[in-house]
Amino acid sequence: MKWQTTEQLKQLLCRLVQYPSISGTEAEVRLAQYIADQLHTLDYFRGNNELVQLHPTGDGRYFVTALVKKAEQVRDTVILLSHFDVVDVQDYGAWKDAAFSPEELTKRFYEQKPQLPADVQADMQAGEWLFGRGVMDMKCGLALHMAMIEQACHGKFDGNLLLLTVPDEEVNSVGMRTAVPVLVEIAEKYGLTYRLVINSEPMFTRYPGDKTNYIYTGSIGKVLPGFYCYGKETHVGEPFAGLNANFMVAQIANELELNTDFCEVFSGEVSPPPTNLWQTDLKEDYSVQIPHRAVTLFNLFLKQKPLDDVTSSLVEVAKRAAKRIEEHYYVQASRFAKLEQSTPKSLSVHVWTFAELRKKAVEMFGTTKVQELEASILAENMNKDEREKTIALIDQLAMLCKDFAPMIVLFYAPPYYPAVNSSADPLIGQLVAKLKTYAQETHGVSLVEQHYFGGISDLSYVGLQQSPASLRAITDNMPLWNRDYGLPLDALAKFQVPVLNVGPVGRDAHQWTERLNVRFAFETVKAWLEYTMKEVFAK
Q1: Taking a C-beta distance cutoff of 8 angstroms, is the pair 197, 422 a contact?
Q2: Which of 467, 488, 454, 535 lies closest to 206, judged by CA?
Q3: What is the CATH number of domain 6-219+419-462+497-537?
Q4: GO: which molecular function terms (predicted)?
Q5: Strand 76-83 relative to strand 160-166: parallel, antiparallel, unpaired?
């Protein structure tokens, strides 16, 4: 067999990494074809060519499926999930030319070890590490899954394996969102019963220096709340005649950045607090008119908290920011008025959700006018990022309602990752207990169960643990919902499968020091995956 020894898997990983499959690039498309071609070299797929497929995502990219059937009457199936896209390599600096050449980059790093951070040097002293973009996030997981598929082709497991590897996990997860309806169709076509979806994202540290070995029984959720601020335009020579939107978004950032009130604690696991991902005013050119329209976006993790409660909390943030804006404006206006011997003015800032803003626009201009405007904006911005499209839609609707300014509008931008947790599933409970014992007795490794994988993953789209009605807080306030973005809710309702993440030890995801512990991955974790497959199919 070709993908079973440590050296074989290391070479497979290096070939996968050599495709610079940054999300949205041509290499991401070419890598999907390469994976399919490699799977077709296995004798089983030479005789069952149709069981390896490239599926279009609708935007020029593809995800790959490869099904190994144990026998015609066998239904029990494990899905092996991975992604093959990576983030960019600008952070590599002088080493950027070798970021996708793991062996070359690793050689350079060992030769120039004193230039590396102390924790990286310590790792290099203690084990065999491979450096490069994607080695741990998560082309190692893909390589391991291809090894499991090869074993299944040789009849090793008493059930079916279905490999699913997707693009775009690092941005909008279009690959996984497109794949879910296809997985439902594949199950119906081939008579499959999905018992487990197993991902092999690398272990993520929970705090600096964390060396714990984790197994994950769920994946953290995420929303991208935004706040659009519309102040009042004025010349810089008359600042109290207007309201600067940059000042408005700064007050929101001051309220929400690292606000631990939004951290969720579940079984001792704490979600990270919200942090800012995007903040800008919407002036297109320099002038001495103050920026009176601005926007800010935040990453916010989810576990158990209902979306209605999340939205209500975010509205309260906006209201507190609005009050601070009003108070600061009046205090400063009063001080300035004393200098000028004039009368200070006060102002009032409205706080709305996007649904409320759109309702105002419809009341003022009618449904047809608003729908025509939205269609026009999407057409004009069709080649832009989903966040930019979202902001453009809100901006134009706000300008229709500018008589109500100043205002703060809460909205959601793509992507949305639902939280998923299979900790209470009986099969998952049995697998985790047995795998912990196996890892300790066979490899001397203590595994700790974590209920939510903290790195965000496509496991979020396995099933739907919220009712469609509970999603209204998102769907009503996401301008792109069912336009350029959405979830296959009907398919998700049918795709109710427990999840588990068993992955390698890596360090520094999305950093120039990204690295993989090679022997641990291709010996220890490989054995864990083999053991897990056997236990799932055990009668």
Answers
A1: no
A2: 454
A3: 3.40.630.10
A4: hydrolase activity
A5: parallel
Kindly report, as residue ranges, where domains of CATH 3.40.630.10 are found in the chain.
6-219+419-462+497-537
Which of the listed CATH numbers 3.40.50.300, 3.60.15.10, 3.30.70.360, 3.90.226.10 matches domain 222-417? 3.30.70.360
Neighbouring-strand partners of residue 229? 294, 408
Q: Which amino acid is at 511?
A: Q
Query: Is the model's pLDDT at 7 over the cut of 90?
Result: yes
CA distance 23 to 59: 12
> Is 221 within 8 Å of 459 (Cβ atoms)?
no
DSSP per-residue codes, 168-217: -TTTT-HHHHHHHHHHHHHHHHHT-EEEEEEE-PPB--SSTT---EEEES
What's the pLDDT score for residue 150? Answer: 98
The rounded distance, in Å, linking the Cα atoms of 326 and 321 is 9
- Encode pLDDT of 479-491 as tens digits: 999 999 999 999 9
Those residues whose C-beta lies under 8 Å from the C-beta of residue 411, and which sit 6 or more positions away, are: 225, 226, 227, 228, 353, 354, 390, 394, 477, 478, 479
C-alpha to C-alpha distance for 524 and 517, rounded to whole angstroms: 10
Give the tokens for residue 423: 């900790």
Amino acid at 455: G
Domain with CATH 3.30.70.360 in the chain: 222-417
Supply 139's token pair.
């082309």
Task: Say which residue the tokens 């714990």 belong to.
Answer: 212
Place of tokens 């041509």: 26
Alpha helices (runs of H) in 341-459, residue ranges in sequence order: 354-365, 367-380, 386-400, 426-443
pLDDT of the residue at 340: 85
pLDDT above 80: residue 127: no
**Residue 240's pLDDT is what?**
92
Task: Collapse the DSSP code of 490 into the 3-class scheme (helix H, G, I; strand E, B; otherwise coil) and give the result.
Answer: helix
Residue 512 CA, chain-centre distance (Å), reads 20
- Rounded CA-CA distance 45/462 in Å is 27
Q: What is the C-alpha R_g of the chain?
A: 26
For residue 353, list its beta bridge partners: 410
Residues in the chain: 539
User: How far is Cα 96 from Cα 154, in angstroms, rounded to an integer?
Assistant: 40
Burial of 41 (0-12, 13-18, 19+ CB in 10 A): exposed
Whole-number Å distance between alpha carbons of 145 and 438: 20
Phi, psi for residue 483 in degrees, rounded to 5: -110, -80
User: What's the CA gap between 487 and 174, in Å, rounded?
Assistant: 10
The C-alpha atoms of residue 250 and residue 294 are separated, in whole angstroms, by: 10
pLDDT digits (tens, 9 = 90+) for 509-538: 999 999 999 999 999 999 999 999 999 999
Let me know: does 416 contact 222? Beta carbons within 8 Å. Answer: yes
Q: What is the pTM of this model?
A: 0.93
